[in-house]
Design a protein that fits this description.
Structural class: mainly alpha
Mean pLDDT: 91
Shape: elongated
Number of strands: 0
Order of helices and strands: HHHHHH
Radius of gyration: 20 Å
Helix content: over 70%
Strand content: under 5%
Length: 141
């Protein structure tokens, strides 16, 4: 693999920090001929898909639970129930935690891609290899 391929693979990981799924998707579609770049871009794209799915699911659950808590509260009280004030910080902690995990994964695997390693995310790396029909190390199945 060339230095350009390693740089583009690194960018696929690092640009997901700012551009979410758009940068890995663009790199994946543009650099399909390079197995190395495709592998790293697809991993970043899959990570962003999981991240967005967890965000949407968490927000739907949070709004649903918040609505149930507020609906179950007695109408005579003017202040929201204490559960509501526990739920909001928990949401923010989960959002911040997921963001930190994505940031760390992007940095760690971006550095590995820049070194030319076929390093895969724990579960998503195997899935990316299966989708691209590759063996570990980039050889075709």
């Amino acid at each position: 693999m060339t230095q350009d391929e390693r740089t583009i693979a690194l960018l696929a990981h690092m640009l997901q920090i700012m551009l979410w799924w758009m940068a890995p998707l663009a790199i994946f579609l543009i650099k399909r001929e390079s197995k190395f770049v495709s592998f790293h871009a697809l991993q970043a794209l899959l990570l962003q898909a999981v991240y967005v799915l967890l965000l949407v699911t968490g927000l739907v659950l949070w709004f649903g639970i918040s609505f149930l808590i507020l609906a179950a509260a007695p109408a005579s009280k003017h202040a929201p129930p204490i559960e509501f004030f526990i739920l909001i910080p928990m949401l923010w902690l989960c959002l911040i935690g997921m963001g930190v995990l994505v940031l760390l994964a992007a940095i760690v695997y971006g550095v590995k891609a820049g070194r030319g390693e076929w390093a895969g995310y724990p579960i998503l790396g195997r899935l990316a290899l299966k989708i691209l029909k590759l063996r570990p190390g980039g050889s075709p199945v």
